[in-house]
Every structure is written in C-alpha cells, then in structure tokens.
Design brief:
The protein is an alpha+beta fold. It has 2 domains: 89 residues, no CATH class; 103 residues. Helices cover 47% and strands 12% of the residues. The chain has 7 helices and 6 strands. A hairpin with a 2-residue loop joins strand 3 and strand 4. The longest helix has 20 residues. It is elongated and about 60 Å long. The two termini are 35 Å apart.
Length: 210
C-alpha cells in the first residue's frame, strides 16, 4: 500500500470535513449560522484527532485549527478554509507540468510589469532597489539547474515582494502550490521566500487564496 503524501492527506481531511458538514446541514433542524458551522467543525476536528482518523502528516494542522476555532469561533472560518484547500489543491495535484506552469507564471508577472530577475546569484543578504515595485527573484543557479527543459527537477525558491494575496492569486491561476512566505528565510530585503516543489508536493500547508 502506497503511503499518503501530505497533499493527499490534507485533501482527504478537507473533503471529509466538508461532507460531514453538508450531512449535518441537511438536517432540517440544524442551525446553519457561521458560528454553529465553525463550532461543529471544531468539534469534528477534535474527534478526528482523538480517533487518529487522518494521517499524522496533518496532525499539526488539525491542532492549529482546533486552537483557532476555540479562540476565534466563526472568525476562524473553518468551512471556508476546508473549501479553499479542496478548490486549490485538486487542480495543483493534477498539474503534471509544474515547470511549465512556473515559466508561465514568470511570463505573466513580467507582462504585468513586475521586476523579474533570473540572472543573479542569490547568496548572502541582498537588497533590491525597486522603489516598491512588485518583484520576483530566482537565483540563477537554481533557475538553470533545477528547471531543466521545462521540467522542475528540484525544489526552487522564489523571492517575491508583493501583496501576499496577489501572490496567492497568481499561484492559483497557474495551478501551483507555493509554501507559506518566510521573511526570515529570505536573502533579499523586503522579500519573502516561497518554495515550489516538483509535482507541487508541498510538505506543509501551502499559501492559500482568501
């Protein structure tokens, strides 16, 4: 039996949660307010974690969402979270041409006036004087060696400066899963580091579009 990947485990969790929420809402007597739905899903996640219903790969996610559900109530937006996961992950998992999608993303950003730099070696701490312009930098070593004949053969780091939801929208448009932005891991001032993996195989929750 093939072990589940993180992506598969996450989608299985999201789909099961949405299915059980839909079954609960099908009951004419159920209260269907955002607060009630979030409360239901929070309890559902608690029970799922206790029963080890899903892969241990998503245990940390469940723990975090339970904490947010308890502290924020409807503000945690748990139904919307699971829906976003299903909506964004399924096309990305079916994307067999991640390298070509990355090249299409780069071309799209250039066409929209982003400052795109692919011919500079990124090492140490750098500063890009772009006057606040949206920008993307990929180290030339990674761009030339990790992206071979349109195929992404190794993970690649994208240093990006832009509104994070705009970045998420572009990723969704091209069926790409980018890691959460990491400012501390970035070598370029005012940029965050995002990782893209072959096959979109992220090891943790990807950047999600709101």
């Amino acid at each position: 039996m093939t072990e589940q990947s993180y992506n598969q485990a996450l989608v299985a969790l999201a789909q099961a949660g949405l299915a059980d929420l839909a079954a609960r809402n099908a009951n004419p007597g159920s209260i269907k307010t955002p607060a009630a739905e979030s409360h239901f899903l929070c309890n559902w996640m608690v029970q799922s974690l206790k029963e080890r219903r899903f892969s241990k790969l998503v245990a940390d996610d469940l723990t975090r969402w339970i904490r947010e559900g308890r502290s924020k109530g409807a503000g945690a937006q748990l139904p919307q979270l699971l829906q976003r996961i299903e909506t964004q992950y399924l096309p990305a998992m079916e994307n067999a041409e991640v390298g070509q999608s990355l090249q299409a993303l780069i071309a799209d950003l250039e066409a929209q006036g982003w400052l795109v730099i692919l011919d500079c070696e990124v090492s140490g701490k750098l500063r890009l004087d772009s006057d606040g312009q949206n920008s993307l930098v990929i180290s030339v070593e990674q761009y030339e060696q990790h992206l071979v004949e349109g195929k992404l053969i190794k993970s690649i780091t994208l240093y990006m400066r832009a509104d994070e939801q705009l970045i998420a929208q572009h990723a969704v448009k091209h069926a790409l899963l980018l890691s959460q932005g990491d400012k501390k891991a970035s070598c370029i001032k005012h940029h965050k580091a995002y990782r893209l993996y072959p096959g979109n195989r992220q090891p943790a929750l990807a950047l999600l579009q709101a």
